[in-house]
TrEMBL record:
Keywords: Membrane, Signal, Transmembrane, Transmembrane helix. It comes from Sorangium cellulosum (strain So ce56). Residues 283-308 have a biased composition (Pro residues). SUPFAM superfamilies: TPR-like. Residues 27-116, 276-308 are annotated as: Disordered. Residues 44-102 have a biased composition (Low complexity). The keyword Iron does not apply. The chain crosses the membrane at residues 314-336, 357-380. Residues 107-116 have a biased composition (Basic and acidic residues). This is PEGA domain-containing protein.
Length: 417
C-alpha cells in the first residue's frame, strides 16, 4: 500500500514540474498570435490536429528525462490524470512563429475605382466648402490615387494653399501643372496655378539667429547691410550676408543662402575684442636755445645811374620815314603820268610801267609810315620807362629795316631776347 502511494506521489510531482516548466517557457510572442488556430471539426478525432503540435516533440523528449524530487502537491489539489503528456517548453533561442491570417484586399475594378473616387471627391467638396481644408485635402488625395486627374490635383493644391502650407502647396500646384490639363477647360486654373507658384516661391524664409553668448550688450543684426529688429528675421530667398555685432565683440559675418518658406536657425559665435593699446604720452621736445644776436641786414647797394638816352636814333628813324615819303611821292607822280599815257595809248609796256611805279610808291609810303611811328616812339618815350625796361630785361634788342626789290618791298624786323 505504501509502495503504491509513493509511486502515485512521484507521478503527480513529475507532472506538476513538467507543467510548471511548460508555463515558464511559453514565449510572449507566441501568446500574442493574431489569430487562434481553428478547432478540429466535430466528429473528427483529435489526432487530426497533431501536426500543429509537432514542434513540441523535442520538449517531450526532455520531459522523459529523470527529474529531481519535487515537493508533494498541496492538500486538496487534484492531481492530473495519469498518462496525460505535458506540453514541452521551446528551446532557448529558438525563434517563435507568428501565425497571421490577414487576407489581401481584393483589387478594385475600374468601375469600382471610379465610383470610389467620385464618392471621395464629393465628400471632399463638402468639407472644403465648410472650411475643413485639412480633411478635404486628404480626401482629394485619395480620390486622385483611385483615378488620377487634373481636377483633384487642382483642388488638393488649393486646399493646401488655404492652410498656408507653402512648400506642400508649391509641390501640389507643380504636380497639377505637370499633369498637362486641358488648355481650354482649365485655362483659368492653369494661369492661377502658375501665378501661385511664382508668388509662393517668393515667400520669405524664417531665420532665427542664436548667438554665443546668448544676450551680449548692444546686439545688432544686419542682412546685406540693412539693420534688422530682433533675432527672428524674415529673409527673402537667395544668397545674403548676415552680420552680427555687439559691444565689446568683433563683428561676425557669414554667407547665408535660404529657400522660400524655409525655417532655419543660424548659430553665430562672437569673439571678444582685444583691449585697445594705451597711447604713450609723447615726450616733450627740448627747449630751443635763445637765438643768437643777428646783425641787421645791409641795405642793397644803390642802382647805377642811368645815362640819358640819345635822341639820334629817333632822328635817324624819322629821317628815313621822310625819305620814304619823298620816294613814295615821286613814284606816285610817275605812276599817275604813266597811267595817263596808258589811257592815251594803251600798250603792255605802259601797263607794266604803271604797275611798277604804283607798287614802289605804295611800299615807300608803308616804309615811311613804319619808320615814322618808330621814330615818334623813340622820341616821345620817357626815360624812366626805358630804365624799367632795361632793368627787367637788359638783353632785349630790336632792329627794323625796310627793303625794296623790283617785284615788291617791305620792312624786316629782328628782336633779340
Amino acid at each position: 500500500m505504501r509502495s503504491r502511494s509513493g509511486r502515485l506521489t512521484m507521478l503527480t510531482s513529475a507532472a506538476m514540474v513538467s507543467g510548471l516548466l511548460t508555463m515558464t517557457s511559453v514565449s510572449p510572442a507566441s501568446a500574442q498570435t493574431d489569430a487562434k488556430p481553428a478547432a478540429p471539426p466535430a466528429g473528427k478525432p483529435a489526432a487530426a490536429a497533431a501536426p500543429a503540435a509537432a514542434p513540441a516533440k523535442p520538449a517531450a523528449l526532455a520531459a522523459q528525462a529523470p527529474t529531481p524530487a519535487a515537493t508533494p502537491p498541496a492538500a486538496g489539489a487534484t492531481p492530473p490524470a495519469t498518462g496525460t503528456p505535458a506540453a514541452a517548453p521551446a528551446k532557448a533561442g529558438e525563434p517563435t512563429t507568428k501565425v497571421t491570417t490577414t487576407k489581401p484586399k481584393k483589387a478594385l475594378t475600374e468601375k469600382q475605382k471610379k465610383d470610389e473616387a467620385k464618392k471621395l471627391y464629393k465628400e471632399a467638396e463638402a468639407r472644403f466648402d465648410k472650411g475643413e481644408y485639412a480633411v478635404a485635402a486628404d480626401l482629394y488625395r485619395q480620390a486622385d490615387e483611385h483615378v488620377p486627374g487634373a481636377a483633384p490635383k487642382y483642388k488638393l493644391a488649393l486646399a493646401l494653399d488655404k492652410q498656408g502650407l507653402v512648400t506642400e502647396a508649391v509641390a501640389a500646384w507643380q504636380a497639377f501643372l505637370d499633369s498637362k490639363p486641358d488648355a481650354e477647360k482649365f485655362k483659368e486654373k492653369i494661369a492661377e496655378g502658375q501665378a501661385r507658384v511664382e508668388a509662393l516661391k517668393k515667400t520669405p524664409a524664417k531665420v532665427k539667429v542664436a548667438t554665443v553668448p546668448e544676450a551680449p550688450p548692444g546686439l545688432k543684426v544686419a542682412v546685406d547691410g540693412v539693420a534688422q529688429t530682433g533675432k527672428e528675421l524674415s529673409v527673402p530667398p537667395g544668397k545674403h550676408t548676415l552680420t552680427v555685432s555687439a559691444e565689446g565683440f568683433a563683428d561676425a559675418s557669414q554667407e547665408l543662402e535660404v529657400t522660400f518658406a524655409e525655417a532655419r536657425e543660424v548659430n553665430v559665435t562672437l569673439t571678444p575684442q582685444a583691449p585697445a593699446p594705451v597711447a604713450a604720452t609723447p615726450a616733450q621736445p627740448p627747449t630751443p636755445p635763445p637765438p643768437a644776436d643777428v646783425p641787421p641786414a645791409q641795405p642793397p647797394p644803390p642802382a647805377a645811374p642811368i645815362e640819358p638816352r640819345s635822341p639820334v636814333p629817333a632822328y635817324v628813324t624819322l629821317g628815313l620815314a621822310g625819305a620814304g615819303v619823298v620816294v613814295g611821292t615821286i613814284f606816285g607822280i610817275q605812276a599817275l603820268g604813266a597811267k595817263s599815257d596808258f589811257d592815251d595809248a594803251p600798250t603792255t609796256k605802259t601797263a607794266d610801267k604803271v604797275d611798277r611805279f604804283a607798287l614802289i610808291a605804295d611800299m615807300s609810303f608803308a616804309v615811311a609810315l613804319t619808320f615814322g611811328v618808330t621814330g615818334a616812339v623813340l622820341l616821345l618815350s620817357d626815360d624812366s620807362a626805358q630804365a624799367k625796361a632795361a632793368a627787367s630785361n637788359a638783353t632785349k634788342k630790336a632792329f627794323v629795316t625796310p627793303f625794296v626789290s623790283p617785284t615788291g618791298g617791305g620792312a624786316a624786323a629782328r628782336f633779340t631776347f
